[in-house]
Design brief:
Order of helices and strands: HHHH
Structural class: mainly alpha
Number of domains: 1
Number of helices: 4
Distance between the termini: 47 Å
Helix content: 55-70%
Largest sheet: none
Strand content: under 5%
Number of strands: 0
Radius of gyration: 16 Å
Length: about 90
């Protein structure tokens, strides 16, 4: 794909969420992948994910923010247990 036709990151994620022949299940897969990676990085020691180009502390902090946002969106705790029913 040439850079002239390359999607932005936001467009690409949107496309990932909607392209599958498995329908809406694709969205569950993408959100679950984000959740699992955020959990993994949020639990890491910053030095373990530090690279020449990336601050481990920033990467862990970002993962913690994303984890919190995902868990808040779906009203779940760290064990993925629903905290409250919709409309409660």
């Amino acid at each position: 794909m040439s850079t002239a036709t390359r999607l932005t990151n936001e467009e690409f994620v949107s496309d990932l969420m909607n392209f599958s022949s498995f329908g809406g299940l694709c969205q569950v897969f993408v959100i679950e992948a984000i959740r699992r990676y955020a959990d993994q990085v949020a639990a890491a020691a910053p030095a373990d994910v530090d690279t020449e180009f990336l601050s481990g502390a920033v990467w862990v902090g970002l993962a913690q923010e994303i984890k919190a946002k995902v868990y808040e969106q779906y009203d779940v705790d760290d064990d993925m247990v629903v905290q409250k029913a919709d409309g409660a």
